[in-house]
Amino acid sequence: MSNTLAPLTAEAPLANWVGAVKRSELQKMLSAASSPDIISFALGLPAPEFFPREALSRAAAAVLASDARSLQYGPPSQLLKRQIVDLMTQRGVKCHEGQIFLTSGAQQGMNLLARLLLDTGGQVLAEEMIYTGFQQVIEPYQPNLLTIRADPETGMDVSAVESILERGARPAFIYAMSDGHNPLTVSLSLGNRKRLAELARKYHIPIMEDDAYGFLYYGAACVPPLRAFDDQWVFYIGSFSKTLGPGLRSGWIVLPESLIPKLSIVKEASDIDTTTFAQRTIAAFLEAEDFNQHLVRLRREYKMRRDAMLCSMRDHFPPQARWRVPDTGVFIWVELPSEVDAAAMLSVAIEKERVAFIPGQAFCVNENCRATNCMRLNFSNSSPELIEEGIKRLARAIGSYENESN
Amino acid sequence: MSNTLAPLTAEAPLANWVGAVKRSELQKMLSAASSPDIISFALGLPAPEFFPREALSRAAAAVLASDARSLQYGPPSQLLKRQIVDLMTQRGVKCHEGQIFLTSGAQQGMNLLARLLLDTGGQVLAEEMIYTGFQQVIEPYQPNLLTIRADPETGMDVSAVESILERGARPAFIYAMSDGHNPLTVSLSLGNRKRLAELARKYHIPIMEDDAYGFLYYGAACVPPLRAFDDQWVFYIGSFSKTLGPGLRSGWIVLPESLIPKLSIVKEASDIDTTTFAQRTIAAFLEAEDFNQHLVRLRREYKMRRDAMLCSMRDHFPPQARWRVPDTGVFIWVELPSEVDAAAMLSVAIEKERVAFIPGQAFCVNENCRATNCMRLNFSNSSPELIEEGIKRLARAIGSYENESN
User: For B232-275, where are the alpha helices, taking DSSP H only?
Assistant: First the structure.
């Protein structure tokens, strides 16, 4: 019954913005790098060996046994909202259930907020080096992106934000990662957090605060996220992906209660509900288990991996390479000697040394931004042993690239 | 640490399209109608008592026990794609795994395709009475909606589609439900299916075929969906929501393989992955269980509910009321005497008789469309006993409304 009437070479015309999207050289390389013999420091994957599988299995069985509506359409889980309020308290944020909106992970959180706030061709204020997933979120809007510098030591240049707003710009929102910036790994100082929240309040510009890594900190008691300093203009995005498992697709937004009805319309149009099954399974898990103990273990294990990577880099990387110790998140940002082109070096690394990373330039949103000699390394998804081996290989790739260039 | 600096009455400015969205009187009424003492024929909910909970619980436990990556980010399940190819064969559609794209339910399928195909202000061709969830999907694009009539007896007016295209319109896509139209319940004839697919091919206009209810047919061997008559211009949307459980949020699109890379970009930006956990759980369920037997049971049970509703209506509704027997889906479309305003009658029905439905006008996309005396009744989510009681109540509401009007 398939069509045999006409030769079908034509293709459906796509939306304008799609035409501009190309699969990058980087994506092709990384897809080649998914082979199992490659040690990958490329993606921000959590370690599957720490997913609390048995406890989640018990939780899933319990919700399926107790209530058929765990597989039905349904209103968001009030129990899970209450539990998220408690988690937010631990992050230093006061909020209530009426301000919690459940999402299919942090990525959808960004997506729904962009749809709520941004018109096609509208303005967005962001750093010139940002998470590629956020770049993808705003791409369909073909936005006018106002960019500011981010310093690998101090993070977002809040003075630059201020002067842009002072000069009259009124972006639809500001995108910010105050803890464990992706890719720079830096966290904002307390002073800069307060100042940024104050600017949002003063100029009535919402901040989309992406806190995907906020629960993975390795230092002492952390400074709270931006949301702790303003409950009206900071829209906080959190996720269970890095702490329980991304395969559950569960995250949340904390935002002013008055916006929830509008956001519900956006969500309903997108995918109706966040999976009731996963919501209830997570809620049952949080009821039955000691999530804090799980987080403590996760931080301890990831800190060991971070430190293994730092030690190996110190032992094997060229002395001109620079990095800082990240206190939050799952990445290390490395500046190689300025003559190294990290994107070119990546193909050597993959082909000869079987090791992968993301070149810094991939995070740049414009051409003023220069990170050609930088790379982002993930430490959460490899064992300390593999990390050591991977860093040795990477050091050889850097060395051979340097030799070739000389 | 919450803000105390300024009185915060201002709100973030929202995207233009959001400003136009208002919570309707209908939504307020239906939200009031969620009380447990109300018999609701309003929403298109499947019956939770038929969800295969035990089998899904076994499947979930098996995938969690066998592989930590069942909670990880990951490529779409190849096994599930193969199983969907088999299901499509049962629907009379030939396709292969390379043409299957997994989604978070049919609603997301529509959403992703709209984003792929539609520009802001672009044209969409659809019937003047359509599924409200589809209306929500295109609303943010503020589209130019080209509408055609749909007949409750024969469905989409394919001649009208032809003349619109002949006159030169080139919409981004045509939205169609060839089986179990929501809300009209009608299915297109074989001839009209072939003709519509031919028009898509001739004019190079993609058809978004929404087959949410296609597996729930109550008659003899069904005519295959539009996708069976063209594999290049018909983009088919399917779902496990009505057959396994909407709380899993799992559906699929069948589309030309060449579009998968672009659609993957849209999906990644939306929510990265469709929950790996649900994908694998469903795949394990389909491996271990007899899904066909489950479908046979579901059809038998739903047919009993449909017939219970038809019998009760015949016994209790006023003689001027009209309906047809739906051969697919979970709704009955009823035309009441022309003087009845179903929306006004709904408030009587809810307040006095504790029974709810959706008034026909809610499905109209423009003012030319008149369905004020119509209502959509769902039969899948109430037992035959409740259906009988609910129809009696509804008959009383119609009667008392008629008396009041006279």
Answer: 260-271
Residue of A53, A71, A119 lying closest to B71 (CB–CB): A53
Rounded distance between C-alpha atoms, residue B247 and residue B249, angstroms: 5
Write out the E strands in B203-325. 207-210, 234-239, 251-254, 322-323
What residue of B is the nearest CA neighbor of A31? B75
Instruction: Please provide residue B224's backbone torsions phi and psi, each rounded to the nearest 5 degrees.
Output: -70, 160
- Are A137 and A40 in the same domain? no
- Report H helices in B67-182: 78-90, 105-117, 132-138, 158-166
- The ipTM is 0.93
- Together in a domain, B192 and B79: yes
Q: Give the tokens for residue A32.
A: 């080649």
Task: Count structural domains, chain B.
Answer: 2
Give the residue numbers spanning the domain of A200: 53-288
- Residues of B with Cβ-Cβ distance to A117 under 8 angstroms: 12-15
CB contact under 8 A, B248 and A133: no
| Nearest residue in B to A251, CA atom | B271
Percent of chain B past pLDDT 70, that is, above it, reads: 95
CA–CA separation, A316 vs A311, rounded Å?
9
Question: pLDDT for B109-158, tens place per residue?
Answer: 999 999 999 999 999 999 999 999 999 999 999 999 999 999 999 999 99
Which chain B residues are within 8 Å of A68, Cβ to Cβ? 48-49, 51, 53
Check CB contact under 8 Å for A262 and B14.
Answer: yes
pLDDT digits (tens, 9 = 90+) for A111-160: 999 999 999 999 999 999 999 999 999 999 999 999 999 999 999 999 99
Question: What type of residue is A133?
Answer: G
